[in-house]
From TrEMBL:
It holds the Pfam family Dimerisation. The keyword S-adenosyl-L-methionine applies. It comes from Bombardia bombarda. One of its GO terms (biological process) is methylation. This is O-methyl transferase B. One of its GO terms (molecular function) is O-methyltransferase activity. The active site is at H302.
Length: 399
């Protein structure tokens, strides 16, 4: 007879309710590691063998609106009630909900009766719906093509952004963003998903000493016309302009121009923020805004292999003056203990762009290859290793 093991779920729930985000993430990682240590071969076969089924059934739930119905219910619902609300066949709904109970997307509370879980509610959030659309509708083909792509390329680390797993999976020569423009809903899904990285509370603005670096500019005694006309903040590859809007809103008193730069089709749809200039620019071409205090880019270099990042950095270095700062807001991988999310995104970048997430040493070497010095880094989201790096022109040696 199998031994019965009791588990104090209430104590764990109480701990989770009072723990901060980092503690919860660490708790999850350790519990999963413990569960994996108990798994037998049969469990491993079915866990990985059915991994695509899990994502597919989440997509089914999103298409039917199952998660919104269940999360919005006042208590548990029967499978028949769920079928009536969503328009699905009752027998099909029973089978779907039975599966959801096994992956904690719904909780079974009686025969064919289910209630929402934390995951159910997560899956109703707009950013989560968009992210699932991005991964299922676009990235899934890239993941499936990755083994063949790496084999065909002799298991070399990819550095050619014109030859990627994504292109193999989609049978195209188009780069990712060009492909997304052709796929219905793809760009919308991507931009909504990226709002996860635009929260002010989890932002470089929370840690970088902007006031200190611009003290001379914001001093009333130096509030001259030249200060007002000097470019203060240039967001290179800034997309819709959210970062520019946040910067201008947080530092309205610092004189200088705030400029958003991106490709023409992106700038055409950017936010019309008062005090922000929207400028069409290809960042691999010479930088037209010279002598800015801050050149800023977020999540741009990790979309490109080293030789292209070097060119991007060189273009900005050519426009910098002595007190200019290049702020690079990216993931900086630790030498050990890289998180699941960061490691997964690193391999996603490999397949989509032949690019990568990088360690501090790798970022430093990239800067030096373009004639820039990494002066300091400021980590603001330790869970995902998100950091803003301060690059400057090399300091002259005193002789």
């Amino acid at each position: 007879m199998a031994a019965t093991v009791t588990f104090d779920e209430s104590a764990l729930s109480q701990l989770a309710a009072t723990a901060d985000r980092a503690t919860r993430r660490n708790l999850i990682a350790n519990l999963r590691r413990m569960a994996d240590s108990l798994e037998d071969t049969v469990g491993t076969i079915h866990r990985y063998g059915h991994i695509d089924l899990e994502k597919a059934m989440i997509k089914v739930g999103l298409d039917l609106g199952i998660f919104k119905v269940l999360a919005g219910a006042d208590g548990a619902m029967t499978a028949d009630e769920m079928a009536q609300k969503t328009g699905a066949d009752p027998q099909l709904m029973k089978r779907i909900l039975r599966y959801y109970n096994t992956i904690n997307v719904a909780r079974e509370v009686g025969p064919h009766r289910y209630e929402a879980t934390n995951i159910t509610r997560n899956l109703t959030e707009e950013v989560c719906v968009a992210a699932m659309g991005h991964y299922y509708d676009l990235v899934a083909k890239q993941y499936h093509a990755t083994p063949d792509f790496l084999k065909q390329n002799g298991y070399k680390n990819p550095t050619d952004e014109t030859n990627t797993a994504l292109q193999l999976g989609w049978n195209t020569r188009k780069p990712p963003f060009e492909l997304m423009l052709e796929l219905p809903g793809a760009m919308e899904h991507f931009h909504v998903y990226m709002t996860l990285r635009r929260q002010v509370a989890l932002s470089w603005l929370a840690v970088y000493p902007v006031e200190e670096e611009t003290a001379a500019l914001s001093d009333s005694d130096s509030d001259s016309d030249s200060d007002k006309e000097r470019p203060l903040y240039v967001n290179v590859g800034g997309g819709s302009g959210v970062q520019c809007a946040q910067f201008r809103d947080r530092y309205p008193h610092i004189p200088g121009r705030v400029i958003l730069q991106d490709l023409p089709e992106t700038v055409a749809q950017a936010l019309p923020t008062p005090g922000v200039e929207n400028m069409a620019h290809d960042f691999f071409e010479p930088q037209p805004v010279r002598g800015a205090k801050f050149y800023f880019m977020r999540g741009v270099p990790h979309n490109h292999p080293p030789q292209r990042v070097k060119l991007l950095f060189e273009r900005i270095r050519e426009a910098m003056v002595e007190d200019s700062v290049l702020l690079v807001d990216e993931t900086v991988l630790p030498d050990t203990g890289v998180s699941f999310i960061a490691a997964s995104i690193d391999l996603t970048m490999l397949g989509a762009f032949a690019s990568m997430e990088r360690t501090e040493a790798e970022w430093r070497a990239l800067g030096e290859s373009a004639g820039l010095e990494l002066v300091r880094k400021y980590e603001y989201n330790p869970l995902e290793h998100e950091t803003v790096m301060d690059f400057r022109l090399p300091r002259r040696l005193n002789i």
